[in-house]
Design brief:
The chain is an all-alpha fold. The chain contains seven helices and no strands. It folds into two domains: 49 residues, no CATH class; 56 residues, no CATH class. The termini are far apart.
Length: 140
């Protein structure tokens, strides 16, 4: 085990020192990026994080009016048993606990139906009924 740790540390140190001289920071470019950046208020960050920021032609910030249907489907597919897709769609803060403590939503049944519903919604590009839905079974 000691040899494996020593080998790992040696490879890490070798890769760090071997490639360290290839990267340089150009201070002028960094300063130019900061000078051209748009200032953002804390209210804008809160709206951005909540997915409620509206599109504004005068604003260079990204907007999220609605969650992406394919992203919601993918999140449900990967970690649906923990209800993470429901947080992406905008639900109650305790929904993760309901999914987790019921073994993935009543032993995976709720998660499976969510997955099918989001797949159909993603194919139709319409998941509006499931955005900000506060019910445990969002399709009812």
């Amino acid at each position: 085990m000691k040899k494996l740790v020593l080998l790992f540390f040696s490879l890490f140190a070798l890769s760090t020192f071997a490639f360290a001289d290839k990267y340089e920071v150009n201070e002028n470019e960094v300063n130019a990026l900061f000078a051209s950046a748009t200032e953002v208020s804390s209210q804008d960050l809160n709206l951005f994080g909540a997915g409620l920021m509206n599109t504004n032609a005068n604003n260079n910030l990204a907007s999220f009016n609605r969650p992406n249907p394919w992203a919601a489907f993918a999140i449900c597919w990967v970690v649906g048993g923990f209800g993470i897709h429901r947080h992406y769609l905008g639900t109650n803060g305790y929904m993760w606990a309901l999914y987790t403590f019921t073994c993935g939503g009543i032993f995976g049944i709720v998660t499976f139906v969510d997955w099918v519903v989001l797949l159909i919604g993603a194919a139709n590009n319409d998941i509006g009924n499931y955005v900000n839905n506060k019910r445990f079974m969002m399709w009812l």
